[in-house]
Amino acid sequence: MLIPALTANHVELAGRRRSEPRLCWCFSSWKPRRGTVRADEEGAAPMGTCAGMCSERERLERQRQKRLHRFEILLGTERDRVPSADPGRAVKEYSRPAAGKDSTRPSELRPPAVLLKTVCYLIDEIASGKTGAPWTEVYGFVFDRLRSARQDLTIQRVSGRLCVAVLERTLRFLVYTSYRLCQEPLRCFDPKINDTHVQECFSWLLGCYREGIHDNEPEVQALALLYNLGSLHALHHTLQLPEPVRSAAPVRLAASVSRAYLEGNLVRFFRLLRSLTFLQSCAVHQHLPRCRQEMLLFYSHGYSSRNCRYPLPLLAELLALEGPGEAAELCREHGITVSGDTVAFLKTAFRYPPAFVSRHSYELVDRKQGDRSIADVIHGYS
Predict the structure, then answer these.
(1) What is the Cβ-side half-sphere exposure of residue 190, based on CA atoms within 13 angstroms?
(2) Which of 4, 119, 241, 306 is deepest in the core (most CB within 10 A)?
(3) CA 371/CA 218 separation, integer angstroms
């Protein structure tokens, strides 16, 4: 006997038995960490004077110590005993604050305009794929150099438009990477470390938005809500936003997705996901394995019968999977019997896999990129 899909109300009722997932969320305004800024006698933060992406002192020091990344080496000197640094390609690396180490010298700090120029270089020349290097290597280099840029912002206590421009591009890069490298082994990409920096950027940006009006705030507020899917605190924060931001299309759509998930209405949730933009889909993608698992659990209870069969193609469509083959694989991982193009749900047979498996999704994510380059995505160009 074939059975139609569960209604939204059935899924909603089942969802009330779920507990809210534990998610990291920061609402407090960003403040520089104590100990990272050495103010002068009048209490003012140092102002950078370095006009390049990397100071001459650091560039020569890393050249002498053979610590140049291959993206920074002067073309034609790669095989030299001591490769030369290219002044137009070397970028200041992140350095941890250390006792006795002065990180506030103006000659080592890049002013905000130079920092934005540096970030744009990293996006346009490295993250864009022009180097032809594996993306795990691209991520490692860009991640470190963006962290260095945020460190210079911190030391100089920069705020305002240029600060927001740097942080927004950094955030988009990190959110995109969370999807791009989701299938990589832990030795190549650590999602927890990436998540820590995503949350730091969200916290810092939300603090900046409270201090003034910025054009891209609705986009970032929507990304924050989707990235922290399932957080009641995140949804409450969104509902407290100023009316012009709260009523913006990206925020309204993200709020609808969040409410559908919190209510357990996963049928509507997966339907709404199809309306998200490419970057919004990258932000919510990390939650899809859990959402699909919950959907299968609901169906295993709602359709538990040895005599009932559920159409596999319909299940694949409801779960926004690539096809019946992927749906069958997911069902078997959860102990659900697949026979031909049908599924037999039994609540006693359902089992939890040892870990969530994150996979790329053409239908929900990749397709939406269209003909836009990665640089366009990170810059926020529509």
Answers:
(1) 7
(2) 119
(3) 24
Q: Evaluate whether 126 touches 141 at the Cβ level (below 8 Å).
A: yes
Cα 240 from chain centroid (whole Å): 23
- Cα torsion 105, 111, 114, 118 to 10°: value is 60
Report the length, in residues, of the chain: 382
- Residues 317, 348 contacting (CB under 8 angstroms): no
pLDDT in tens, the chain (382 residues): 444 444 444 434 344 334 444 344 454 433 333 333 444 434 688 999 999 999 999 999 999 999 999 999 999 999 999 999 999 999 999 998 764 566 789 999 999 999 999 999 999 999 999 999 999 999 999 999 999 999 999 999 999 999 999 999 999 999 999 999 999 999 999 999 999 999 999 999 999 999 989 999 999 999 999 999 999 999 999 999 999 999 999 999 999 999 999 999 999 999 999 999 999 999 999 999 999 999 999 999 999 988 889 999 999 999 999 899 999 999 999 999 999 999 999 999 999 998 888 889 998 999 999 999 999 999 999 7
For the record, the structure tokens of 339 come out as 């026979």
Alpha helices in the chain (DSSP H): 8-15, 56-64, 112-121, 135-156, 161-180, 191-209, 217-227, 232-239, 243-246, 249-262, 266-273, 278-285, 288-302, 312-318, 324-333, 367-369, 374-379
Give the pTM. 0.88
Give 160's DSSP letter: S
C-alpha–C-alpha distance, residues 378 and 1, integer Å: 49
